[in-house]
Every structure is written in structure tokens, then in C-alpha cells.
Amino acid sequence: MSLLLIRNANIVDPSQSLDAKRDLLVRDGKVAAIDDAIEAEGVEVFDAGGLIVAPGFIDLHVHLREPGHEYKETIESGARAAVAGGFTSVCCMPNTEPINDNSSVTSFIREQARKAAPANVFPIGAITQGSKGEQLAEIGEMKAAGIVAVSDDGRPVVDSGMMRRAMEYAADFDLPVVDHCEDCCGAAGWAMHEGEYAALMGLKGLPGAAEDLHVARDITLAELTGARVHIAHISTARSVEMVRQAKARGLAVTCEVAPHHFILSDKDVYESGYNTHFKMAPPLRSEADVEAILEGLRDGAIDAIATDHAPHHYNEKMREFDLAPNGIIGLETAVSLTLDRLVHRGVISLSQMVDLLSCQPARIFNLDRGTLRVGAVADVTIFDPNRPIKVDASQSQSKSRNTPFDGWELKGSAVATIVGGCMAWRNR
Ligand SMILES: [Zn+2]
Ligand SMILES: [Zn+2]
After folding, report:
1. From the CA of 233, which ligand is nearest?
2. How far is the CA of 180 from the centre of ligand 2 (A)?
3. Could you write out the DSSP letters of every residue in 292-315?
4. Nearest ligand, CA 155
5. 230 C-alpha vs ligand 2 centroid, how far in Å?
6. Which of 222, 255, 278, 280 has the highest Cβ tally under 10 A?
7. What is the C-alpha to C-alpha distance for residues 167 and 163, in angstroms, rounded to an integer?
């Protein structure tokens, strides 16, 4: 029998409307008790005085690169970056090599995770074979093998008829469909957001309308099919407004935002001087879009914060801006960025933060997580909302270093990460 007692915790758990000072006892990987003062003999004690204790954070959107691109990241290194950043669970996108479009790849990912990953790894299966958009993948078989959602992330599903069939099929298996919303919009080969800064930099721009077109289509199809649709990495004001209205109409439409999209804009791309760590899909949008995203986080139109952790090798990013691959790492900076930019600036409360990083992600992907109720799996994130940190990419647990936040000084940091009752990471 293994026992862990977390003392003097400020427990913030919106799943049970709890925001109070308590002790928390973990026994055999489960939450055994939450009470005012728990006495227990011969147990490992973690003093959480001054810290926040929350249900384990869940990242709905990461790229772990294994199988196929282990030089960028492996399931093990990505999961280590996750626990170092305060995440107990990650959901990994299928755009590996081979693509996770069948049950043998799904099983491989789960087996690698079981052997080597300090965090829970929940695979996402492809919508179409090879994510080519032509034929549906083996969604039923992948569901049996353990996928928690389907997505062709990295690419949009261009054909609306294919998306309709995918939604009907996924609904039969009670799986959410996650869409990377990007209409071509006459902007093939784009390098950043379309606007004055793209013009100043001489780079081809992708308008916000490219996202809005697919979000509008997916909401329309969600209504037609009754499927659960989750918009990946939302980035525009109009898309946030459409999701807000879809929710008001009672549709099962949810969305996530990545920290870079609630902090940075195309002006930062300009000021970075062609720094490819500011290049991702969707691109950093206008300052007005960032404002609308902050409002969406504030009023609940946005359901989750997800990193879109996308590791790339140094040599790949060190190219001309328009030729460099999209994406940045994010697992180890998300909690600090959220605390510094959202909580300390009064955009959201601590309770909303935990909802956005744990309770709601669990609900969206139907995961048996996101709560510290007695009897639940003891996945716990412990963080210090006030600890100052300086981001140092060279110390990352990820195999890659591609972040625009290197050197940033932020207030707030993850302190300990407990997965299934075991201390997977601690920094105190
Ligand atoms: Zn994407
Ligand atoms: Zn992605």
C-alpha cells in the first residue's frame, strides 16, 4: 500500500466547487480523503503550504513525434516535458510517421507510453487514412485500441462531405472530432497572418477568414449530425464569436486556445525580425484577435488551454522564415504564461484556470480525470502562483528548443506533478 499526504494545501477543484485549505491523502494511486487535518502514520508527506493543489492538468493538443521523428521528440521526452510543466496527461496528435490511422499505431503509442512515459498519454486517431482527406480511417478499431478523439491536425479536412461522414461516424463511437480549421483561402504557401505587418515584411499572409470559414462549416455540420466538435487552437475574433453563439444554441461545440495566441500577435512577428520561433499554424493574429480571445477566456466561450506543443529540430527552424516549419514547444511554459498573463492580470481567476487546464479538458475528451473527488485517480498538479521564473529553453526536458518565450521572466510556476499517486516531478 502506498500513501502520500499533501498537507496545508490550498485545494482549487472546480469539479466539486472546492476552494479551501485542506489536507489531501492519496492511497494506492487514488484520492483517499480530503479533510481539514488528516493524521496518518508512516506516510510520505508533501508540505504544500503557500501552494495551490489542483486536479492534474490535461493538454488536449500535443505532438510527440514518435513514431517516425524521434530526433524531434519521443513519447518519453515529451511526457517528461509535460510533467516538468505541470501536466499529468497529454493527448497526442496522429501526424506521426506512420500516421496514427489504425489500431496497430494506436497500440504502439500506448505501449511506449506504458513503458517509458511519466505522464498519461492519450492518443488521438486520424480522421482519414494517412490524413489525406480521401477515405475514413479505421475509427472503430482505433477506439477499441484506446483513442480518445479523432483529428487530421496539421491539415484541415478540406472536403465538407468527408467531414460530415467523419462526424456521423465519430458520433456513433461517442468520439469528439477535433478540427484544424484552415481553408486555403487563396493563400497557399502563407508564412504569417495577412495584414499590415505581413505587407511590411514582404511575407505572404493567411487571413483570419481562412479559419472562420472552416469554423462556420464545422458548426453547421455539428448541428446537422449531432456530433461533438472541438475546434483546435482557435485564433480569430470571429471564430470565438461563432463558438460562443453555437454554445448559446446548445450545440456540442467546444474550443481550445494556445498560450501563444492569447499573448502574441503579428506585431511580435514583425518586432522579432523574422525569428522563426514566431511561426506557427494558425499564425499569430492581430492585436484585436488577441483581445477577443482574452474576452472568450473570461466569459467561457473558450473551454480549454492547450499548448499545441510542436517540437522541431534547431536546423529545421534555422531557415528563411517562409521555408521554416510551423510550430513551437509549449508544455513547460503554459502554466507560467497562464498565471502571469491571465491570472495575475485579472483576466481569469485561479478557479477558471484550473477549469481551463483540467476539468473542462477531461470533459471534452471524456477522460476519467479532471477531479480530486474521493475515489478519483490521484493525478495532481501543484503550483506556486507567485514563484518568479525565467524561461530557459536550454534546460527544457523536450528534445527541442523552439520557443519564442526563451528568457521571459514570469510570475508563477508548476512545483510538483503527481501521476496516479506517484511523484512524477518536483521542483521544491
Ligand atoms: Zn493544427
Ligand atoms: Zn497541432
Report:
1. 1
2. 8
3. HHHHHHHHTSS-EE---B----HH
4. 1
5. 13
6. 255
7. 6
Please give the distance, rounded to the nearest whole angstrom, from the Cα atom of residue 234 to the centre of ligand 1: 9
Structure letter (DSSP) for residue 261 = H
* Residue 340 designated active-site: no
Q: With CA atoms as reference, report the closest residue to 363 among 138, 100, 65, 58.
A: 58
Ligand nearest to the CA of 156: 1
DSSP H or E segment with residue 12 = strand 3-13
Strands (E) across 95-220 are located at 120-123, 150-151, 177-179, 192-193, 205-206
Query: Is 0.90 surpassed by the pTM of this model?
Result: yes
Residue ranges with CB less than 5 Å from ion ligand 2: 153, 308
- The active-site residue out of 13, 212, 303, 308 is 308
Distance CA 211, CA 376 (A): 38
Q: Residues 356, 297: contact at Cβ < 8 Å?
A: yes
Tens digit of pLDDT at every position of the chain (428 positions): 689 999 999 999 999 999 999 999 999 999 999 999 999 888 999 999 999 999 999 999 999 999 999 999 999 999 999 999 999 999 999 999 999 999 999 999 999 999 999 999 999 999 999 999 999 999 999 999 999 999 999 999 999 999 999 999 999 999 999 999 999 988 999 999 999 999 999 999 999 999 999 999 999 999 999 999 999 999 999 999 999 999 999 999 999 999 999 999 999 999 999 999 999 999 999 999 999 999 999 999 999 999 999 999 999 999 999 999 999 999 999 999 999 999 999 999 999 999 999 999 999 999 999 999 999 999 999 999 999 999 999 999 999 999 999 999 999 999 999 999 999 999 87
Whole-number Å distance, alpha carbon 62 to ligand 2 midpoint, is: 6
Taking the C-alpha atoms of residue 245 and residue 243, their distance in angstroms, rounded to an integer, is 5
Alpha-carbon gap, residue 9 to 378, rounded angstroms:
15
With contact defined as beta carbons under 8 Å apart, do 175 and 206 qualify? no
Question: Which residues neighbour ligand 1 (ion) by CB within 5 Å?
Answer: 153, 180
State the amino acid at position 317 in one-letter form. Answer: K
Q: Cell match 517509458: residue?
A: 116
Ramachandran sector of residue 137 (left: φ over 0; alpha: ψ -120 to 50; beta: rest): beta
Distance from Cα 40 to the centre of ligand 2, integer Å: 44
Distance CA 385, CA 342 (A): 11
Rounded to whole angstroms, the Cα distance separating 369 from 381 reads 12
